[in-house]
């Protein structure tokens, strides 16, 4: 392994295309269709990537606005006015017209790919390949959403007659939506709520995550030019000053938040009319892998290593605890150590890099405290380089002999630590899953179909996705993505998200000749955007 204190480079050693030559000062924010220039306080943005400057290490890369409650309320008023209780231009617009706006936006967004990818690397330390994948996956997600909304609208383009009642059933928007994404997928995860909410006719206020703010600046003008005034608004600043006032307003209809359950619970309690608020939440997870005797260890080790350490384990879908049958535990652990010790640690643009700098302040110290706690209570640090760290760099640690007395057994580490628990009876990992506060996913590794079938039937009633001989993951995006217990509220996928951010609404009339004439006239003369039989091709 490289010496960690030699990984950071001078500015001259950074490839030209990935350099940030001067601080990226974002002074603009979008409210009511106007790109406003902020004149107040700014927050300095620091990168997990340090640059050597003589004996010093520098990581200052830019600044973002620190808006106040005043600007937050302006954003809320703008979104509320644009929705106008469902009478706003965007809410009443035909689906085909909304699609045209979104296509225009996506073309403008595509032109900013290189800059956004570069900012993903510098702001959160994501590797070049993963940053490119995040951007490209987001573009694909938008186009898939467009196709899904076409299908949804086509299915609603006909009238239904039942018990002498004529009706047309469509989906209508919910209203003002506050979108807040996570730092680990600041672009993609934010857009998996923002885009479906937008295309269904809602108006949006979105706050970028605390890490990954600058990368949205290249998109502000695209939002401004592609959507009616007030439909998309951006806010920056502390949650207490800009988010809490929005949540305390009756004008907020939907909270779309991906983060911790602790923060989500605080935000939900702020709303004065909780029955009016719809929440769409992606929260904590502590996904287990359960390795059975007879599992293909080479495949299992690869899937567990990548599943635990992709983007340094900073994914809600990461494998965060591994249960391995005692007869194969030693062999599995040896193979896992060998695999992990060969992983490259370095800078995001380095060739074959697997482990990159951690973006959260004091993260290395937190991870070290988990290791110290576990070792003090009987765990063994298995890999020679495990836990070595320098500034934001932290080499993955493999801990064996983990048990329930240790913090790492319970806490979602959200970082490069792999806890291994040896079990004798399959009841042990099942009890863990049942008693856990989380219920997102689990991975099963084995070759006995009877055993796997029995476990599947138990696990599907505890988690929302069971992966057989593969790591936990979100995709493909047309699969449902959700969780039980404290892991999620609502279901997200390309099609599910459209339903989450809308509600079934119908227009109905008794099947009389007079009513049929009225409906025919409305449809024939194209007098209503809701009541029509248009078929999107």
Helix-strand layout with pairing:
Elements: E1 9-10, E2 24-25, E3 28-31, E4 34-37, E5 42-53, E6 56-65, H1 69-83, H2 89-92, H3 95-110, H4 113-124, H5 128-155, E7 160-162, E8 165-173, E9 176-180, H6 188-199, E10 203-207, H7 217-226, E11 232-234, H8 239-242, H9 244-247, E12 254-258, H10 261-270, E13 278-282, E14 287-291, H11 297-309, E15 319-325, H12 326-341, E16 344-345, E17 353-355, H13 363-376, E18 380-381, E19 389-390, E20 393-394, E21 397-400, H14 407-410, E22 417-423, H15 427-435, E23 438-439, E24 441-445, H16 449-459, E25 465-468, E26 484-485, E27 488-489, H17 494-500, E28 502-510, H18 513-524
Helix pairs in contact: 3-5, 3-7, 4-5, 5-6, 6-17, 11-12
Structure report:
The protein is α/β, with parallel strands linked by helices and 537 residues long. The chain folds into two domains: 4-282, Aldehyde Dehydrogenase, Chain A, domain 1; 287-481, Aldehyde Dehydrogenase, Chain A, domain 2. The chain contains 18 helices and 28 strands. Helix 3 (95-110) runs antiparallel to helix 7 and helix 11 crosses helix 12 (326-341). The model has no long low-confidence stretch (mean pLDDT 97).
């Amino acid at each position: 392994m490289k010496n960690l204190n030699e990984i950071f480079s001078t500015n001259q050693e950074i490839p030209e295309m990935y350099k940030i030559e001067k601080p990226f000062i974002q002074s603009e924010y979008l409210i009511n269709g106007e790109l406003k220039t902020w004149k107040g306080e700014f927050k300095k943005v620091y990168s997990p990537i340090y640059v050597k400057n003589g004996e010093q290490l520098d990581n200052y890369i830019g600044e973002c606005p620190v808006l106040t409650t005043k600007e937050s309320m302006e954003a809320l008023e703008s979104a509320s006015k644009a929705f106008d209780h469902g009478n706003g231009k965007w809410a009443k617009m035909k689906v085909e017209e909304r699609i045209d706006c979104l296509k225009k936006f996506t073309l403008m967004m595509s032109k900013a790919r290189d800059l956004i990818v570069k900012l993903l690397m510098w702001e959160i330390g994501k590797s070049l390949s993963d940053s490119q994948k995040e951007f490209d996956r987001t573009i694909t997600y938008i186009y898939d959403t467009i196709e899904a909304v076409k299908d949804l609208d086509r299915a609603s383009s006909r009238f239904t007659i039942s018990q002498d009642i004529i009706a047309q059933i469509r989906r209508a928007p919910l209203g003002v939506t506050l979108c807040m994404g996570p730092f680990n997928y600041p672009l993609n995860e934010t857009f998996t709520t923002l885009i479906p909410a937008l295309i269904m006719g809602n108006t949006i206020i979105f706050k970028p995550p605390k890490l990954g703010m600058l990368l949205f600046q290249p998109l502000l003008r695209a939002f401004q030019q592609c959507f009616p005034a007030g439909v998309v608004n951006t806010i920056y600043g502390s949650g207490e000053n800009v988010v809490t006032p929005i949540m305390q307003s009756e004008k907020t209809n939907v909270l779309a938040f991906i983060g911790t359950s602790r923060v989500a619970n605080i935000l939900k309690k702020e709303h004065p009319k909780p029955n009016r608020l719809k929440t769409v939440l992606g929260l904590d997870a502590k996904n287990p892998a359960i390795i059975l005797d007879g599992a293909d260890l080479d495949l299992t080790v690869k899937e567990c290593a990548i599943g635990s350490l992709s983007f340094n384990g900073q994914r809600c879908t990461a494998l965060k605890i591994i249960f391995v049958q005692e007869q194969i535990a030693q062999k599995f652990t040896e193979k896992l150590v060998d695999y992990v010790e060969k992983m490259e640690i370095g800078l995001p643009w380095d060739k074959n890099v697997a482990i990159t700098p951690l973006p959260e302040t004091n993260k290395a110290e937190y991870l070290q405290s988990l290791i110290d706690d576990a070792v003090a209570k009987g765990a063994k640090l298995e890999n020679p380089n495990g836990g070595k760290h320098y500034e934001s760099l932290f080499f993955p640690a493999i801990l064996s002999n983990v048990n329930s007395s240790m913090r790492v057994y319970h806490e979602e580490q959200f970082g490069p630590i792999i806890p291994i628990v040896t079990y004798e009876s399959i009841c042990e990992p099942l009890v863990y899953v049942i008693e856990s506060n989380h219920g997102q996913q689990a991975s099963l590794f084995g070759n006995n179909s009877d055993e796997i079938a029995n476990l599947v039937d138990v696990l599907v009633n505890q988690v929302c996705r069971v992966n057989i001989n593969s790591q936990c993951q979100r995709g493909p995006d047309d699969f449902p993505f959700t969780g039980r217990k404290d892991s999620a509220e609502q279901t997200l996928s390309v099609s599910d998200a459209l339903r989450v951010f809308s509600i079934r609404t119908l227009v109905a009339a008794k099947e009389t000749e007079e009513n049929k004439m009225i409906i025919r006239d409305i449809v024939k003369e194209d007098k209503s955007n809701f009541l029509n039989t248009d078929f999107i091709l």
